[in-house]
């Protein structure tokens, strides 16, 4: 038996007022970069990535209008550098959102927040040309959960964090566990007692501590509704997550609910040896929170920093941690800024750099060595900005520790693709499969 | 947090026409330091569920005497711990780690009379051209003659091996060699499969979570499941690691 769950007491009324005041969109963010993958995932790309895979929302009237996986050549030595070299449409528009590799990096799972479909792409056979090999269309029917969001690899399995449920399309949800072959194994409900609000968003595991952390966002009723309507609806604004949950990983049982107000989204464990802390950004309060064990071994959450001016609702939507835990990129959607925080002392993050990288920015992905940074533009189909502010792109930058220097850009509207959302990296090295290769090499 | 990332990133071993530098001999592996202990106390056996993940595949294999067998003979009837290895793997966090963990688990099982007849270890090579039965005998050392059921198996060809790899979801990649005289190398993710007596995979471990005490707790959980109501066999924590 784990310790008793603690109670969360936060509400969102001040946030609602601020949001109404600015009448702008709120966030969804993403697992993205090479330093955020599951610790069970193999074949990390520690040199030059060859490809950036972009899970792209279809836009009616733009190309075929369907959600698609877009492959961009990201190797500067390639004659096709910075160009779209492949795309796979999935034959529908279901609010394409996040992706995650299987533990062996041979397959990339991608989900739709609206239609709750999961698409499995083979990125191992030919990494330059991902192939759609499986569709899982019965997640709501089999699990009762809606909105597959985070895809997090376990050995031979995939954890899929839902955002909502089939009964009321609210935020109460859970996690589905699939085998790598796509068979549902079981489900785990997000805790709704002892402080748990039942909401879900991200997953992050620390195997050495047998700890899984989850965060919380909101349900289908909110994320599929125009934001202006959401923020003007007091009841809707109550329905955002205020918690993180500490799980006993082996037993897959909630141990403790941490009060983290303001929709804590991405969770990043420090990868530095000996570190056992994680950081997250609360989107609606624009705060950084640190999760670590206290002297008695109890996991605690602590507010440690502010992102921009919270009164202006910058909306931090994605974070990316350096591989040594010493720095953190933060993208804020509303002001289109990319910020860098010195995390040398994780108890006191310190912003050292900022740059406007777009009129709206969402995901940020960095290479393992931190010298390359990629930024994409889209939150959700209904929440992106409109008019000239509705830029849709992937922009690549070089980072020398002082300045982000643009290297290439793909305009997703001009290329007839759609809204650029989640990014993952690919490498030619994955192409060498055992089958046939060993025999022919000898 | 660094170790699992580094360890699971790429496990590399030389596969070359020249003699490889890998471990190659079980006795040498047994002399290596014992595997790390978990930085947490595993849940009490039986207090959690190990859910069916998939049925273990079967196919032709070859035992140490060179006899043709079926893998299903070695994945049913007992609680089985199975790992794919190749004997020339030289990455300390790869196949040698699997060997050391198996050795530690085997030692604990050997000391637990209530478990001994219910547990089997299986080491299966995915390098059939090099890992012949003779090579596997050398790799096994005296393990096969210990008081535990530890099977060392190989296959006759890649053609019969690949369906087993696919069935278990065990990746193996071939990459160009980067050492003098090395033509190609194999890389893979170390995975260890815990299989119940019905031949169903109930847990999969990789480097980031491969602790003998965790494995033993899981074995005990399956044992308790099979003998509902029976008290846990006395496998004390102190017996779980080391030899």
Concise synopsis of the structure shown:
Chain A is built from 6 helices and 30 strands. Chain A has helices at residues 13-22, 139-143, 220-223, 227-231, 234-237, 434-441; strands at residues 51-57, 68-73, 84-89, 96-101, 107-112, 118-122, 131-136, 145-146, 150-154, 157-161, 164-165, 174-179, 184-189, 203-206, 211-214, 243-248, 253-259, 264-269, 277-282, 287-293, 299-306, 316-321, 327-332, 337-342, 350-356, 364-366, 372-376, 393-399, 404-411, 419-426. Helices cover 28% and strands 22% of the residues of chain B.
Regions of chain B with pLDDT < 50 over 5+ consecutive residues?
1-24, 229-243
What is the H level of CATH, i.e. the homologous superfamily of chain B?
A: Glutaredoxin
CATH class of chain A: Mainly Beta
Span from first to last CA of chain B? 27 Å
By CATH, the topology of chain A is Methylamine Dehydrogenase, Chain H
Helicity range of the residues of chain B?
Answer: 25-40%
* Strand and helix order of chain B: HEHEEEEHHEHEHEEEEH
Per DSSP E runs of 2 or more residues, the count of β-strands of chain A stands at 30
CATH topology of chain B: Glutaredoxin
What gap, in angstroms, lies between the N and C termini of chain A?
Answer: 55 Å
> How many domains in all of chain B?
1
CATH superfamily heading of chain A: YVTN repeat-like/Quinoprotein amine dehydrogenase
State the strand order across the main sheet of chain B. 2-11-10-5-6-7
Q: Rg of chain A, please? A: 20 Å
Shape of chain A: globular
- The number of distinct helices of chain B, counting runs of at least 4 residues, comes to 7
